[in-house]
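Progress against Task 2.4 (sequence-to-structure conversion) is shown through the following example record, which the project officer requested during the mid-term review.
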Amino acid sequence: MAQRKGCLIGCGVALVLGAGLIVALFFGVGKFLDMADKSMVDPAVYGAVKTGDAESEVRDRLPSGESFVKCALKEGGPAEPEGSTCAWYISSGEPKNGEETVLRFCFKDGRLAEKTQYPMK
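Structure tokens generated for the chain above:
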């Protein structure tokens, strides 16, 4: 009888841990997809904004929030314009030659100073 009770307790603990793992995995995947979404910009948005546009207007068209994905996008691109602050995103368009495209928007004095696209390294 004691063995049976111990087995039931062990199975119950395993079931609770398994359910907790599934919930954590589901939450983690959802969080990852949300982060990825915050790092993507439609190519139409990139094409629509022009150098000289007000920074506030451009940023209103870009996803808000930070994403860990953006940190890797800074590598491999051209030098940032001096005195500017830049934001990096991944193009939501089709990859070119199997490579994702990085879209960089640089702002200075309240205006879009430069927009650049380059392949992700």
